[in-house]
Amino acid sequence: MLPQESLNGTDGSVEPESQYVFVVYNRGSGVINHIHQVVNLPGAEVRDREQMEQTALSYVSPQVREREAADLAVLSVPHHQLERGKFYRVDHEQQVLLAVERQG
């Protein structure tokens, strides 16, 4: 997932007013369950951080939410930090996103 710096509309390019990325992960393992990007265009109603985090959590599969509910956490990261083709995990202690080698 790469953030878009501008989006094309019918009348040309539109710059986002704000962009957020929320990573839902397991606190113990650092395994990421979902990456949620929010792009607000001019005139959009901007939700508060808690609402955006709850929305990100809602996209995690019900099975994972049930199995890992106590261990799930949400980390906000700068939208430009994610790079296409890279794999990540979260260091919960330091609250940072780390690039890792793909397992599998």
Describe this protein with a few key phrases.
alpha+beta, 16% helix, 7 strands, three-stranded antiparallel beta sheet, 104 residues
Structure description:
The protein has 104 residues and is an alpha+beta fold. The chain has one domain. Helix content is 16%, strand content 38%. It has two helices and seven strands; from the N terminus they run ββββααβββ. The protein has helices at 49-58, 62-68, and strands at residues 7-9, 12-14, 18-26, 32-40, 72-77, 87-91, 96-100. The strands form three sheets. It has a three-stranded antiparallel β-sheet with strand order 4-3-5. Strands 1-2 form a two-stranded antiparallel sheet. A hairpin with a 5-residue loop joins strand 3 and strand 4 (32-40). The longest helix is centred in the middle third of the chain and has 10 residues, at 49-58. The chain is globular.
Low-confidence stretches: 1-5
Q: Give helix % range.
A: 10-25%
Total separate domains? 1
β-strand percent reads 35-45%
> What string, H for helix and E for strand, traces the elements in order?
EEEEHHEEE
**Gap from first CA to last CA:** 20 Å
Instruction: Look at the helices and sheets and give the structural class.
Output: alpha+beta
| Widest beta sheet: strand line-up | 4-3-5
Overall pLDDT confidence = 89
Based on DSSP secondary structure assignment, what is the total number of beta strands?
7
Query: Which radius of gyration do the C-alpha atoms yield?
Result: 15 Å
Instruction: Please report the number of helical segments.
Output: 2
Largest sheet composition: 3 strands, antiparallel
